[in-house]
Amino acid sequence: MTSLHLVERRPRNPTRAVRVGALTIGGGAPIAVQSMAATRTQDVAATTRQVQLLEAAGADLVRIAVDSRKDVEALAEIRARTRVPLSVDLQENYRLAELVAPHVDKIRYNPGHLYHHERDKPVRDKVAFLAAVAERHDCALRVGVNCGSVDPVQTAAHAGDDVGAMVASALEHCALLDALGFTRYVVSLKDSDWRNVVEGNRHFAAERPDVPLHLGVTEAGMPPDGVIKTRIAFEQLLAAGIGDTIRVSLTLPFEQKGEEIAAGRGILADIAAGRFRSVPPRFGEGLNIISCPSCSRVENEAFIELARQVKEQTAYAQAHAITIAVMGCRVNGPGETNDADLGLWCGPVAVNLKRGATELGAYPYDQVLDRLRVELDALIAERKPSPPAP
């Protein structure tokens, strides 16, 4: 992995301007700050209130997840009640784009998810469908690549190099869209490790300095660690002229999602003023707890409190280099816990506990912490160095 250079301020990359409703991303426009609604999309009143809360906090753009036709029906009503530019997050079913496009300003798709849906169809045809829908309905696109869900072809081609696979996937989809004559798109390359975020975005920006970049550390976790991880990545990238819009992804109670916007605005203000924060001593060493941001894909709001409890009850293992992942939904849960030493994939009524890619069973929310501690103690014991021979 490339080592970080010292922060030095440079002019922003000359990316092209991408219009998202009344908002412009790239092209020298102010860096946009965005977030994602955490409520269930079909709860129209709650999601409308969430969008309005984020707008009041200063969000330039708000993303909503859609996974079914009922979500689409709700989205239409939410759009009618809100003013801020809206982005939609397509999950596995990319064909829903045709239904959601009339109600939003930007559509985000994940190349990894696109690969898995309708596998007998060439990826180019799926991208062509999305581009045609976006063009017809005056929408922008975001190619959203996550290290934990890169399509298997790129993963196999870059065995052991997750960042390389992520960058290659993003470049592939840029080339597909360019070949179709569709250039109204933004790219994001995200990971829960801020080092990978810095490395991936640097490499992509060197190859495609014209493409606006959406920056974020996914599954950054809870404040304050989640804000620190994000700040480190943003300082390195924004100061190098890389990045046109940002998302601070934090595990927060639904009513506190506006804190993501406040954190993003604070980081931007500090960078603009030349105030760069030092990294706390030994930050990133020892116990590492990652948790996905509270969003509308969360299947049980108890996940948010569980993440807090995991952090609190595993504090005794702070000195050990162990990663614990707490994921709140079926989209990120199964795959993005695989790289953690211990993973908690939270479903509607139970938590799937994993050790690496091995599933250990499903436990009620009020019982999983006891089993987690057993597994954590076993890991610590296994990694404890053997006493020297007499």
N-to-C CA distance: 39 Å
The CATH architecture of the largest domain would be: Alpha-Beta Barrel
What ranges have pLDDT less than 50 throughout 5 or more consecutive residues? 1-6
The helix fraction, in percent, is 25-40%
- Taken together, the total number of domains comes to 2
Beta-strand content estimate:
15-25%
What does this entry look like structurally?
By secondary structure, the chain is an alpha/beta fold. It is 38% helix and 18% strand. It has helices spanning 44-57, 69-81, 97-100, 111-116, 123-136, 152-157, 162-179, 194-207, 225-238, 258-272, 302-313, 333-336, 368-383; strands spanning 18-20, 23-25, 32-36, 61-66, 86-90, 106-109, 140-146, 185-190, 213-215, 245-247, 288-291, 323-327, 342-346, 350-355, 358-364. Helix 8 (194-207) links the parallel strand 8 and strand 9. 48% of the residues are buried. Residues 1-6 have low confidence and may be disordered.
